[in-house]
Design goal:
Helices cover 39% and strands 22% of the residues. It has one domain (12-112): Nonspecific Lipid-transfer Protein, Chain A (2-Layer Sandwich). The chain is an alpha+beta fold.
């Protein structure tokens, strides 16, 4: 049997500057309906995912909730692990409005499809 090749690591900056904005654009109506600003910190690099603007900006200011991930947790997320599961298990740190994490998890789950 041929061995399965491991996917190369996902670049954090490319993920937040290209992949997530494309997803937000494709899901613009749902994101506008849900609203909110979501901070994601990966190994000290912070990003704000703004649903209403369907945009991602550097930094995590004036957000409803912030999720902090290690590099390994980010790779797991990029490979399809649901964000809400990382938070529920205590693997990912969360601050702010815990109820808002479901919205971000819902949208990011579409990356695995």
């Amino acid at each position: 049997m041929a061995s399965k090749k491991k996917a190369p690591p996902v670049d954090v900056d490319a993920f937040f500057s290209r992949t997530v904005p494309r997803l937000l654009g494709a899901m613009r109506a749902l994101c506008a309906e849900r609203g909110g600003r979501y901070g994601v910190v990966v190994d000290g690099r912070a990003f704000t995912i703004d649903f209403a603007q369907a945009a991602v900006v550097a930094g995590a200011d004036n957000v409803d909730v912030t999720v902090t991930l290690s590099a390994a947790q980010f790779q797991s997320l990029a490979a399809g692990t649901e964000l809400r599961k990382l938070v529920a298990s205590g693997e990912a740190a969360l601050s702010g409005d815990r109820d808002r994490i479901e919205d971000l998890s819902l949208v990011l789950a579409f990356l695995a499809r």
